[in-house]
Amino acid sequence: MKKLMCVIASGFVMAVNAQTTPNVAEKPQPLPPKKMEKRKVPPAEERAQKSVDELDKIVGLTADQKTKVYNLALNRAKSVDAVFEKYKGQPDKKEQAKMEIHQIRKNYRMEVKNILTPEQIEKIKQHHKANHPQNKQNNIEETIPAKDEN
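^ that's the sequence the OP posted. Answer follows.
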């Protein structure tokens, strides 16, 4: 009887191990088609409106400022899209594309700063400090450049 119980118990243990241990010979399953799709980027108009809405939430833009910032954000989004299209399929030009996009974004920030009042600029700086405390080495003026910078 003891032998029979040992055989049954060892068979049970082997069955459990067989179910939980992956078969090494099996190939990993490919990702389903949804996972393989590239991320869909919203249209430039949507991205521009999102930028305006976020800035408005932080500083409280006037109607005139919203229109001006929207136009700047739309121009920025279309310019970034153009850079992506220009370097599409050229992985060796990735750094050059990054530099162009960085310059587009920097110009956008400078132009927006020219539209904002000093109080609004201060609100942005405070918001940035509150939400990015780990970037102590990163100069806040890089995010909000001075008006006289080029």
